[in-house]
Design a protein that fits this description.
Radius of gyration: 17 Å
Number of helices: 4
Shape: globular
Strand order of the largest sheet: 2-1-6-5-4-3
Largest sheet: 6 strands, mixed
Distance between the termini: 59 Å
Strand content: 25-35%
Number of strands: 6
Length: 153
């Protein structure tokens, strides 16, 4: 076998992981707790820019999702690219929504946002056990009018 060839067993794991991620996108777009509980391990660890320390457990994950969906009830994530290797999946998302409620201490602006997020997930036995989420908060803050656009006075 050549170095970059994938065995049938590895291909099966990759396909299963991609299916889990499709369910995950449904979960974050709807907030349906039962979908999340089926695919996120109870001991999940995730890194989000909203917290200086990693968050632990499904309830911590739900807290972040409630914060996002609370500030932008129409928020939607669309997978633009999916790369899977072994037990990891990387997704480049486009996140869009309208900030109709306070968000991270910012008052509601009523402004729409559209930003990129690059997230890496680790899966085990068909469940997400770790996530590193990196949304483009700089662009989001500019779109919400919280930061001046580069070059503006």
């Amino acid at each position: 076998m050549m170095k970059n060839e994938v065995t049938p067993e590895q291909a099966s794991v990759l396909e299963k992981n991609k299916l889990v991620m499709q369910q995950f996108i449904c979960f974050i777009n709807t907030g349906d707790r039962s979908v999340g509980e089926a695919i996120i391990a109870p001991e999940v660890i995730f890194y989000a820019p909203t917290s200086p320390e990693p968050l632990h457990g499904f309830e911590g994950y739900m807290d972040v999702l409630r914060m996002m969906r609370g500030a932008m009830p129409d928020v939607q994530w669309k997978a633009e690219e999916v790369i899977a290797e072994g037990d990891k999946v990387m997704i480049r998302f486009t996140m869009s929504g309208t900030q109709t409620q306070p968000f991270m201490g910012m008052p509601a602006t009523g402004k729409p946002v559209r930003v990129t997020a690059m997230n890496i997930y680790e899966l085990k036995d068909g469940k997400i056990i770790r996530e590193h989420g990196v949304p483009d908060l700089f662009s989001m803050l500019m779109q919400l009018g919280m930061l001046p656009a580069p070059g503006s006075k």
